[in-house]
Amino acid sequence: MKARGWVFLFVAWPAPAFAQEAARTSAWFRPERLNVLIAMAVICGVVAFFLWRAQRDRHLFIRKITGLTALDEAIGRATEMGRPVLFVPGVMDVDRVETIAGMAILGEVARKTAQYAIPLEVPVRYPLAMTTAQEVVRSAYASAGRPDLFSPERIRFVTDNLFAFAAAVNGIMLRDRPAANLFLGEFYAESLIMAETGNTTGAIQIAGTAQAAQLPFFITACDYTLIGEELFAASAYLTRAPVLMGSVKGQDYAKVAIAAAIVAGVILEALGITAFREFLTVR
Questions:
Q1: For residue 233, which of 41, 21, 65 has the smallest C-alpha distance?
Q2: Do 197 and 79 have their domain in common?
């Protein structure tokens, strides 16, 4: 009786959507999507090749990013003046890729501030971001051999209200007078408020975001600005880790291949040859 019940349940249970589609078409492979398969194979192959190459050659070239090179200058200035460094890893939670990129840079900044024994202030807008930032800074101080200098109260949750958070950051800049302000992450309407306040205090400011609408404000009020994907390449640029270097190089060459395909398609269309465009069209 139990066996019959299980058989009935198995038969009556609805099949997954992909199984229903396969049963309807009687085929698991769709030839009209071959172009997508080829594109994915090319991109993944290029990335895998550079990952393999990075494991063998740690000196892969990445162009100089001025804003990241200036990090040493900013931290050195804070050391000379005996003032803290302020780091804001964006205004969003850790489920956003720009926040993760900012946390990766925070680890390198924390390692340098630990070496020079200068305070690092990290205000955040979300509790989970605070926990993540504390672990990142703690690990950086430990790797620098200065775990005794780590102060968890300096990495603190302020408020989840956007403009209240901006006001709190402005208060830190006006009270503590940090010598370097680093805004690296995802920012919105508060970007100019914070950057302009930091500019009035005379601090050296380095900003970076992938939000195109906020870049003009950072470029105007900050000394150095990471534009778009420079923020995501920062962790590879600073650490020179083979996996990160290979990923960046692979993605760059994949973009070159895509750009070449676009140019080739335009030329062929101008010549009246439509086969290439038809092959690349997703159906």
A1: 65
A2: yes
